[in-house]
Input
Amino acid sequence: MNQSFAYLKKQPWVWSFAAALAVWLITIAYTEGQGATAILTAALSFATFTIIVGLGQMMVITTGPGNVDLSIPATITLSGVVAMKVMDEQTAMIIPGIVAALGAATLVGIFNYGLIRLLRIPPIIATLSSSFLILSTAISYGRGIRIKPPLPLSDFATARIFGVPLSAILVLVISIGLAVVLKRTVYGRSVLAVGQNMRAAWLAGMNVDRTRFATYVLSAFFSGICGIVLSGFSGGAALNMGEEFLLASIATVVIGGTSVAGGRANVPGIWGAALFMYLLVTMLNTFGASAGVRLILTGLMIIGVIVAAGGEEQR
Amino acid sequence: MSSDSIRLDGVEKSFGAVRALAGVDLHVAAGECLGLVGHNGAGKSTLMHVLSGNLTPSAGELSVGGAKITGNWTAAAAQASGIRCVFQELSLCPNLSVAENVRIVHRSLKGLGWKKRASDLIRAKLDEIFPGHGISPEDEIADLAIGKRQMAEIARAFTVTDGPLRLVILDEPTSSLDAVTAEQLLAYVKTETARGTSVILISHLLGEILSTSDRIVVMKDGKTVAERKARDFSRNSLVAAMGSEAHERRQATAKILGTDVPVLVKARPKTGGSTALEARKGEVIGLTGLAGHGQTRMLLQIYSRDHADVKGAISFIAGDRQSDGIFNLWSIGRNITIRSLKALRKGGLIDLAAEEKLAEDWKTRMAIRTPDVNNNILTLSGGNQQKALFARALGSDAAIILMDDPMRGVDIGTKQEVYAMIRAQADEGRTFIWYTTEIDELSHCDRAYVFRNGEITASLGHDDLTEEKVLQASFAETAA
Amino acid sequence: MNRRLLRQALPFISLAVVLIATFIVQPRTMSYFGLNLMLQYAVPIALATIAQMFIITVNDLDLSIGPFVGLVSCIGATLLLDNPALGIGALAVLIAAYGAVGALVHLRNLPSIVVTLGLSFVWLGIAVLILPSPGGKAPVWLKAIMSVQIPVVPFPIVAAVVIGVVVHLALMMSSYGVIARGAGGNPKALTRAGWSMLRTKIIMYMLAGFFGVLSGLSLLGLTTAGDAHVADRYTLYSIAGVILGGGEFIGGRVSPMGAVVGALTLALAGSFLIFLKISPDWQIGAQGAILIIVLALRALVTYGEQKR
Output
């Protein structure tokens, strides 16, 4: 018992869950227990979207310093728009719509890495520039009418099993899969190795290029999934639907205990961090804090976490 | 002893458990050129970093110009006392011009017209040391070839503005200079010492130490072990003092290979020359010559199968563990198995039990001293980290193993264990291509290639692998 | 052809190409008022770009400059208007805060991207507290400065040139500028020569804060009302401007003139795309494309340089 506690204490993700729990407890203490489960359910629903893109961002950041995907918001929008347009409110077109949306997202990932590798543009600028192009594509393609999602899709996105959102279960499955990939596949190990030391990884026989390529594509693919489900959840695609996810994706990665210097990923931490961030906003709302205070606290939280984590990572 | 320019008494420096300096006494007189020699890891570089204020000694005393240093000994304080250092890794900013780099070490170069003053200063010094240098003060460092950068840095160390110039430390200053400029520099050192400046010259080239220094100090294992006037040393007595009397017994004979043994590697250096390297199954091939003359590039060329005919899987053992070898965040086990992950897969997933077994196996075979392979790699000493890298390569399916001077900073006991392992593995049919900077290690090779300026200049058989013959081959062209 | 020269000339060539293209598409812009109108927002963008450049010089990145500029515009439209002394004091505190962030990043060896990301929330939060919705009023003197009419040459061009020259003198010509750039090129060498990296970082961050303040105030002079979100895009513009201007993310290789030219190019590209009657849908995309094309050209030039 003592041993397992000591083990737990060493896991960086424990802190984000502990923080999320603390914030939740404070909130329901304030409301005197009212809406305790409703808050949790809502947190799971909304956090789901942050988690899925957070996982993609986590993989990209894990491949080493300088790697980051700034095209996530644009890709979410593109995927949502493509899905809605192809589905065109018809149930029969759901599958083609999903395929088309994920296909578009995959192309984005390929394009991103092409810029990084072939034109040797630093990832931050490459994904930024491509996000402009992607956003324009989405605007141009999806202009005009607002298309509603087919009923089964919105049903899926809002459905719950014993109070747990179906989308959360889907993302949980993806998370477990990703954790297995990181621990037990050559690709996963390559990501961790490349992130620690790209040259050493190459000399140890890893295919550095293929690893980085797959990672950028994976991140775009996850953004694609987010775009589809989010459109179903919120009754259609919107051009600004991805906006909040840029900062959120990076923030969850940092708070969740993934190393910003690369080489150490943390899947559970993404969950803890996403739940924490949502619950924090809920708590501040419950307290009646203004938008300004919420923003300031969020910012200080990110800085606080990185300052606390930064000390042990000098290498 | 008032003429002492600088004096160290009982200086110690430890990095964790490693004792880099174990009580060094050293003094340099004004106007003296002190030669400092010692094997890799003898503590010379650490000592120089202490002198230049970049490292604070753990114990001991330091006096400059007869005055004991009591306050904080920092880089700024060393600068102010007139101590300059030309480090092995260059201390120039690649994005700045030559003149701007001069400004960095001279605080008084400011105000209107500083750029002109800096340019004049460095141009005059370059002209003085390296006549016909062909460097303009406006040149950006990044645009200069490595030799010219070295020249700029050396000249910068000798420039004087308002402060005194007391001592210049030259750490392997000729490593990237050609024969002519190296001569120019050594001649200048004599001129400068005649003016009263002290110079500490560190070099692996015993010839230049013997010809240039007034006095020579030999370091070994963090201590000074011999100190005499330069004329009282000969090349042989110097080598003896450095401690290579501990010659282990040479391997009796080279392996005799039948003609049917296949050639696994055949590659001609892309950097030049017409001689190609060839390695047959079961051979241990040495790469030697002066450090940095294309040996590592040759290994990388073979590794990337770039203009190289290679038959079989390759594994690479890095010498620079930090930058090329270990994964800091991982356990010992994961560091060992990374090269074998593909073979450890079962149904697409890595078989964790098999992975653990492989790690345990090789921990035992290499005698890696750790209670648990799941401990972080950094819990190991340097030598044991290196063993883990050997385990990574030897535990893999590789038929050809490339070694990039892997014994740097490894203790002698570990070395012996690894040498035996290499021999045993070669007898089992593995091929080793081994770049080493320690000539003694060549005795474990069947054959060796000598590199110079990126070319293979000689191919030596086992019986020719003596220090003398290797050095001769290394200097073949400059002997005149 | 000297490739280094070519690379340095690339920002200027890009600007010339966009400018000429604009003149061809819309000849009426080739006038005092046309240029004045087209380029007026170039001034705050150029100032923000310079701010970003100071941070990039020491190998960091500032993801908070946009919200910071927004915050300054809010303070300018409220505090500075009502109580100039207090307003100036608040802006000074902000600059000091930038210095403190620089110290924090250096001392704890933190990734600047994450710290400034968090900071962007803080700036935005404070700005929203001051002005929950756009409002306030620009001080009269600010408006006067920003609408000054200079004979013959439009004000934005003069201002851009002045900014570029001043920063060029400070960073590229002065003896302290050498230390700042050296800190990006080889921090170890700087430390060895006895310079304090901490001090250098604090100074560069404070300079970034100072130019961020100038950017916010000049923007306020143009918009005449404060808005927390007015400069959200400036973070991206400023990074793109530095890179377009020939700067590099690491290694202390920056060019103040280039950065100003890069900012002008970005500002102009917006107008150009409007004149081109490109569907508004594609305007952001076209900016992305311009960015990619210029960087691709540079990659080509640099590649040739390495092969030489």
